[in-house]
UniProtKB/TrEMBL annotation:
Quaternary state and interactors: Homodimer.
Record's function text: Required for chromosome condensation and partitioning.
Record field: transmembrane: none
Swiss-Prot/TrEMBL domain comment: Contains large globular domains required for ATP hydrolysis at each terminus and a third globular domain forming a flexible hinge near the middle of the molecule. These domains are separated by coiled-coil structures.
Similarity annotation: Belongs to the SMC family.
Signal peptide extent: none
Compartments, record wording: Cytoplasm
Protein name per Swiss-Prot or TrEMBL: Chromosome partition protein Smc
Positions that bind ATP: P32, N33, G34, S35, G36, K37, S38, N39
Gene name of the encoded protein: smc
Portion of the full-length sequence here: 1 to 199 of 1188
């Protein structure tokens, strides 16, 4: 499921629409300090559903929108698209090519698209679950993340192994099913109370 293309438009320092093509093998991105190398990995993380502004070195999610420079006015929106080769169906989606787009406006409105169809954040997260590249995986290691992992609680570290083993997906489904069971039990208690009142 290689990432073949990344399109960044209005995200952080990328005021101009920029397309990066990834060939087979290793791609190295080089540039002077502050030229935007980390912004590229953050664009990937953001498009995959990152919801913590701090992880993207901001205070607010709107901080990802190009804030202007000496020569350019600030922009009103940011958009990032990831294109994956899905011929091996590693992503749970019936298409040889899968594109995931995230868009944000200065108003704070946000939108996700899979193959140009509007979807929920939940759908994007589910698409990447068990793919090995989901939000908390080690596919993207930012500066300082190694220390963070080494110092993390054992339960958090266990999530990393569970994702690699492919069980995280089932664990999440179990959590949802348990929450529904709890709700149903509460409803049953309420019904019993009402029946008793009516008797
Ligand atoms: P280093 O090698 O020092 O780690 P880098 O190449 O990884 O640097 P980044 O940290 O990706 O560089 O980019 C930092 C640049 O992005 C800074 O110049 C910063 O002003 C710019 N930047 C960040 N957010 C925005 C934004 N919302 N609008 C405009 N520019 C931004």
């Amino acid at each position: 499921m290689p990432l073949t293309e990344l399109v960044i438009d209005g995200f952080k320092s990328f005021a101009e629409k920029t397309t990066i093509h990834f060939g087979s093998g290793i791609t190295g991105i080089v540039g002077p300090n502050g030229s935007g190398k980390s912004n590229i990995t953050e664009a990937i993380r953001w498009a995959m559903g990152e919801s913590r502004a701090k992880t993207l070195r901001g205070d607010n999610m709107k901080d990802v929108i190009f804030a202007g420079s000496e020569f350019r006015k600030p922009l009103n929106s940011a958009e990032v698209t990831l294109v994956f080769d899905n011929k091996n169906r590693q992503l749970n989606f019936e298409s040889d090519k899968v594109s995931v787009t995230r868009r944000i406006l200065r108003s704070g409105d946000s939108e996700y698209l899979i193959n140009n169809q509007s979807v929920r954040l939940k759908d994007v997260r589910e698409l990447f679950l068990d793919s090995g590249i989901s939000q908390n995986s080690l596919a993207i290691i930012s500066q300082g993340r190694v220390d963070q992992i080494l110092n993390s609680r054992p339960e958090d570290r266990r999530d990393i192994f569970e994702e690699a083993a492919g069980v995280l997906h089932f664990k999440k489904q179990k959590e949802i099913a348990n929450a529904q069971l709890d709700k149903t039990n509460q409803n049953l208690v309420r019904i019993n109370d009402l029946v008793k009142e009516l008797e």
